[in-house]
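Tokens in:
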């Protein structure tokens, strides 16, 4: 079952349950998936569907970060939206798994202690391996912490 069908059936279930917030979030996700399919003029691959979900999660996180603390209504809405969207995203890698991938990339490149000048080369090998599986910001932070 494609993500579009999966989201549509979950949206119908939310409507029947009277869960307006979840229904709105799923509606936005469904629209984003359909728009991407229309832009592509073909059905989306599983990878492309995941990218759309991750993009929606990233946008919601950015909204949450930029919202003033006194706007609790927006903060609550963003948190609810994140919990709903994360159900459709793949499980993200944790720090230990990211470090394993980094060490594999370093050994492949023959670099024992990464220096700041090597960061571009390392990231070029590393990012395709973790794309859609790990937060790029977290990968960058871990990579920077390993440099001497």
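Residues out:
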């Amino acid at each position: 079952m494609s993500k579009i069908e999966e989201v549509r059936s979950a949206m119908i279930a939310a409507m029947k349950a009277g869960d307006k917030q979840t229904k709105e979030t799923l509606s936005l996700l469904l629209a984003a998936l359909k728009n991407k399919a229309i832009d592509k003029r073909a059905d989306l691959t599983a990878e492309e569907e995941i990218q759309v979900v991750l993009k929606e999660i990233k946008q919601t996180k950015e909204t949450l970060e930029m919202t003033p603390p006194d706007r609790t209504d927006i903060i609550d809405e963003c948190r609810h939206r994140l919990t709903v969207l994360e159900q459709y995203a793949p499980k993200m890698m944790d720090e230990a798994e990211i470090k394993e991938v980094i060490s594999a990339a370093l050994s492949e490149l023959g670099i024992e202690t990464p220096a700041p000048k090597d960061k571009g080369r390392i990231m070029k090998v590393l990012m395709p391996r973790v794309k859609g599986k790990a937060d790029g910001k977290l990968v960058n932070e871990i990579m920077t912490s390993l440099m001497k």
